[in-house]
């Protein structure tokens, strides 16, 4: 299963990501700061986002449909 965790560098995410990876899930996480990308990747998740930017900076709809 493909799972998105918002706040991928937080306490809950740091516990959940390894568990989800161990059961075979693909985990994508949002991160706020560039230095968090490497930490999230070490946990096994794929970081998503543009460090230093907010969702509020995104022009147009912030939500789309999955392929």
From TrEMBL:
Superkingdom of origin organism: Bacteria
Region ranges (Disordered): 43-67
Organism, scientific name: Streptomyces brasiliensis
Protein name: NAD(P)-binding domain-containing protein
């Amino acid at each position: 299963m493909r799972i998105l965790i918002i706040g991928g560098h937080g306490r809950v995410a740091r516990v959940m990501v390894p568990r989800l990876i161990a059961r075979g899930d693909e985990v994508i996480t949002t991160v706020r700061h560039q230095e968090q990308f490497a930490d999230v990747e070490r946990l096994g998740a794929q970081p998503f986002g543009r460090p230093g930017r907010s969702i509020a900076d995104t022009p147009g709809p912030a939500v789309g449909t999955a392929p």
